[in-house]
Structure formats: structure tokens, C-alpha cells
Design goal:
Elements (H helix, E strand, L loop, with lengths): L4 E2 L2 H23 L4 E7 L3 H16 L3 E7 L5 H12 L6 E4 L9 H7 L11 H9 L7 H14 L6 E5 L6 H10 L3 E5 L6 H6 L3 E4 L17 E4 L3 E4 L13 E4 L4 H4 L5 E2 L6 H20 L8
Parallel strand pairs: 1-11, 2-3, 2-4, 5-6, 5-7, 7-8, 8-11
Antiparallel strand pairs: 9-10
Helix pairs in contact: 1-10, 2-10, 6-7, 6-10
Bound molecules: NADP nicotinamide-adenine-dinucleotide phosphate.
Length: 303
């Protein structure tokens, strides 16, 4: 059997960003409107710093206004809530994203609930979760939105396919399941208490892995010819790359799927890095443009 074709998330994301930029230019020319995204970072989490730098850069490259507000790790919850309130009532801000994870002492659910659902470009607010599951228009969480776009681009029609989503987080697994259900897939959601996990995975035409466990999904868990979307981002030691100046081994990123094994069985597969990751930010830009249109009484563009 031939090897799986690689789903090029980087190229797809680039095309999406080009479409977003074209829409931004049109909004500016036709309506004098420039969509604006404000990202709030609490603390100094190194991974979050990298994410928000990339978000800011790509927002500006698409022609939008990007603002990043950095708060100290010891910022009281009330101060963060007050800032969100201020951003909610600022008509110049179309999208608000509070970078997760937040420091432990801050109640994440309370913070997400404080964001105006119309400005919630992450799609995490319960109002938007409800809209997603009931089929109403809503900002869709960026990572699962990107996964669905890759699946449709690769397979076209998804109707009737058996899909298994491995992971049930609010930010990936659950919204992914909602999106696949809306595409008329038969959806199974698996998690840490699922019995016969490998067997359940082997039944799936579409397997989306969002577990956060390096290379957990083995080649023999995959149905021959299945489409595999690997959401996982896990840093593992890579002694083959040598050592850092302090003697610690260098590292590399791997997904939740054992790529080398899986590509021998799957029909299509996303790589890590270069698969789901780039699609996430591109969808954040897309959500921001759509939010700006809605807030200004304009029809949501097809991007
Ligand atoms: P999460 O909140 O930690 O959720 C992980 C899920 O996996 C949970 O539902 C958990 O089950 C399940 N799980 C854990 N161990 C398992 C096991 N041994 N067998 C079966 N299920 C197991 O993670 P997340 O936020 O959804 O993220 C998942 C991965 O995606 C992470 O690697 C993260 O870095 C990555 N990610 C990537 C992007 C991107 O842009 N590419 C965006 C977001 C996340 P229980 O519910 O039963 O505990």
C-alpha cells in the first residue's frame, strides 16, 4: 500500500490568510472599516509568548489592527475582568482573546464568561458554544475550525463518514465533534475512560487526535486509508539533534500520532509541525473579520 498523502496545513493557512487580507482591504475601501483584535496575556508563559507574537504579526500582515496587552502574573482577577469590560465597550475593538492558560488563581470560566459573545473570537463563551451545537451562526473555536477546513479540502463531502475525536476538551475535542456532526458524520468522542480505544479508533474513516500525549496513536490503531488529523503539540527530547549549551538535550515537536507508523496506513495525514497549527491563527483572523462585519451591521463574508 502506498504512503499517506500529507495534508499541507501551512499552504492551506497561507491561502486562508490571503483571502482574509483581501476581505480586510475590501472592508477598508468600501466601508472605512479596519477590523481590530486585542490579545490579553497574563503572566510570562514562554509558549504563550510565542503564540501571541505570531498572532500579532499575522494580524498586522492581514491589514488589521493588532493590540497586545500584557499583564503581570500577579494581576488580580478583578483587574482582568475590569479590562475585559473596558474592551467590551470599546467600539474600536472587534475581537478579544484572552490567552489561555491563565494563572491558577484566576477563574478561567469567569473570564471567558465576561467577554462579550460578539467579540469572543475564540468561540469559547457558553453563548457561542450553544450557538455552535444548535446550528446558529457563531465564531467557531479556531483549532477545530482549521481541522474541519483541512478535512473538507482533502475529502470534499464528509456526509456519512465515521469520525472519531480523541479528546473532549472545550477548546478542541467537543467543538470538533459538533462540527463533524453538523457535516453529517457519525461521531464518536473518545477520552481517558474509553474502553478498547485502539479498536474504536480503527473503526474511524476520520480520526482527529487531540490528547496531548506524544505519539500515543500507533499505526495499528488506524483504519487503512483513513484521514488522520493530528492536533497534538508535544515537545520531546531529541538527542539526535545534540545538546544545548547547558548540556540538556535539544528538543523537537511531535504530535499525538506516531507519524512514521501512521503514514504507512492512513490515506491522508497532517504533519506536526506544519499541519493544524498554522490553520489555528488563520482562523482567528477569519473570526475577527466576521466579528467586525457583524458588529457593523454588514453581512458576514464567505472566507
Ligand atoms: P486537554 O484539555 O488536556 O484534553 C486532552 C483530552 O485527551 C482529554 O479529554 C483527556 O480525557 C484525553 N486524554 C488524555 N489522556 C488520554 C488517554 N491516555 N487516552 C484517551 N484519552 C486521553 O488538551 P487540549 O487542550 O484539547 O489539547 C490537546 C492537544 O492539542 C495538546 O497537545 C495541545 O497542545 C494541542 N493543541 C494544539 C493546538 C493547535 O493549534 N495545533 C491548539 C490547541 C491544542 P479526559 O477528558 O477523560 O481527561
Amino acid at each position: 500500500m502506498s504512503e499517506a498523502s500529507i495534508i499541507d496545513g501551512k499552504a492551506l493557512a497561507m491561502r486562508l490568510r490571503v483571502r482574509v487580507a483581501a476581505e480586510v482591504a475590501k472592508l477598508r475601501d468600501d466601508h472605512g472599516l479596519t477590523p481590530a483584535l486585542t490579545v490579553v496575556l497574563v503572566g510570562e508563559d514562554p509558549a504563550s509568548q510565542v503564540y501571541i507574537r505570531n498572532k500579532g504579526k499575522q494580524t498586522e500582515e492581514a491589514g488589521m489592527v493588532s493590540d497586545t496587552i500584557r499583564l503581570g502574573a500577579d494581576t488580580p482577577e478583578e483587574d482582568l475582568l475590569a479590562l475585559i469590560e473596558k474592551l467590551n465597550s470599546d467600539a474600536a475593538v472587534n475581537g478579544i482573546l484572552v490567552q489561555l492558560p491563565l494563572p491558577d488563581r484566576i477563574d478561567e470560566a469567569k473570564v471567558i464568561a465576561a467577554i462579550d459573545p460578539e467579540k469572543d473570537v475564540d468561540g469559547f463563551h457558553v453563548v457561542n458554544v450553544g450557538r455552535l451545537w444548535t446550528g446558529a451562526a457563531a465564531p467557531v473555536p479556531c483549532t477545530p475550525a482549521g481541522c474541519l477546513q483541512m478535512l473538507k479540502e482533502t475529502l470534499g463531502e464528509l456526509k456519512g463518514k465515521r469520525a472519531l475525536v480523541l479528546g473532549r476538551s472545550n477548546i478542541v475535542g467537543k467543538p470538533m465533534a459538533a462540527l463533524l456532526l453538523a457535516e453529517h458524520c457519525t461521531v464518536t468522542i473518545a477520552h481517558s475512560r474509553t474502553e478498547d480505544l485502539a479498536e474504536r479508533c480503527r473503526e474511524a474513516d476520520i480520526l482527529v487526535a487531540a490528547v496531548g500525549r506524544a505519539q500515543m496513536v500507533r499505526g495499528d490503531w488506524i483504519k487503512p486509508g483513513a484521514t488522520v488529523i493530528d492536533v497534538g503539540i508535544n515537545r520531546v527530547e531529541a538527542p539526535e539533534k545534540g545538546t544545548n549549551d547547558d548540556g540538556t538535550p535539544k528538543t523537537r515537536l511531535v504530535g499525538d500520532v506516531n507519524f512514521e507508523e501512521a503514514k504507512k496506513v492512513a490515506g491522508h495525514i497532517t504533519p506536526v509541525p506544519g499541519g493544524v497549527g498554522p490553520m489555528t491563527i488563520a482562523n482567528l483572523l477569519r473570526n475577527t473579520v466576521i466579528a467586525a462585519c457583524r458588529q457593523n451591521g454588514l453581512p458576514a463574508p464567505e472566507i
